[in-house]
Design goal:
2 domains, seven-stranded mixed β-sheet, Purple Acid Phosphatase, chain A, domain 2, binds fe (ii) ion, six-stranded mixed β-sheet, alpha+beta, globular
Length: 422
Amino acid sequence: MTAPRTPFPIPRRGLIGFALGALAAVGVAIALLAGRSASAIAESPAGTQPHHVRVVWTESPKDSATIAWSTREPGATHRVLLDREPRAGDRARYERTVVATRNGDYARLPEEASLAFHHAVVDGLQPSTTYWFVVESDGVASPERHFVTAPADTRAFALLAGSDSRSDRAQRRAMNGLLRARFEADEQVIALLHGGDYVYDGLSLELFAEWLSDHELTTTSAGRVLPIIPTRGNHESRGELFDQVFGWPGGPVGRNWFACRLGAETLLLVLNTETALGGDQADFVRDSLETARDRRWLLASYHQPAFPAVKDPSPALEHWVPLFEEYRVDLVVESDGHVQKRTVPIRGGRAGPDGVVYIGEGGLGVRQRSPDATRWFLQEPGFARRGHHVWRIGIGADAIELEAYGEDGARTDAARISGKRE
Ligand SMILES: [Fe+2]
């Protein structure tokens, strides 16, 4: 059995240490609140003007996406207008209308103002195809945006991967500018895999409204939206707000796990360390990997690490690592530690040439920590450093190319994983 994990996990360092840590956490929260010059909710556009427009990918992004947005007033009629040609916002000319079927008020803390969410699930899309769209609430439309669906064939593509954007808003906005620059410059990039801990308190709509505003900084100057593949982290381990932001990815709270198929050869398991890792979820991992045996590339991603560079291992070490090794998973993306790390290939608790590589651990806007460089799995050719970063995971026919970029945009790591499931 896996013990329920608290939203702010208690470090194993004794009562006095914990009390000091709790005081520090309260201090951080007060500083965060005091440092906020204005409310992101209060600054939202009035009426039903759509904002916070985002595109979310889960199981089948080659032909499906969730387009979501926020409005200040709840409104009555919400829809997406969509076309394979740009229509410059001329709403009479879009070829397709998709009604937003999931609408409501975001969950919020008692003292917070309200904001409404809207989700339209758009399916029947063509792969590797650009779709231009506006979203509309009670006749008020957003500017035109566009996104590109995931491939269904064997062409090379890349994911940006990062997490832990929760507590340093200026740094988060700077990193989002870096994500946008990479997205604009790199035509292989198709989406952002976010490993969780979006905000400090996942029950706070104000903090999520800030995050959603900041996420819009990743949209290119031409209006291309960076789709997000979402993961629950421990700072949003409880509550409905995560689901209302990201469209119940892989089910509601307590589930939130799914298998994302990318191209003809890649399976990405997005897992949830904030609920039981064994039982149904472990069965899902096994069944998904068994079904995907003929796929060339198997990846997994989740929040709390099995091979952490700072903290203690999560139950992923017990429940999932044996399955990753049995099915010869190629790459695992972990978060939560606030360091940049890449392990040696690991099999059976030791370094081995046909093992699984674990990268991480979150640097999109949170104070960075110093890795414990003495850990065996971080020795050369492994690597760890302190510093904000984003990963680029390039997936080609013959290899997975890993690169990491620091906050100044300079490359801080590069490695290559060759296929081992010949
Ligand atoms: Fe975390």
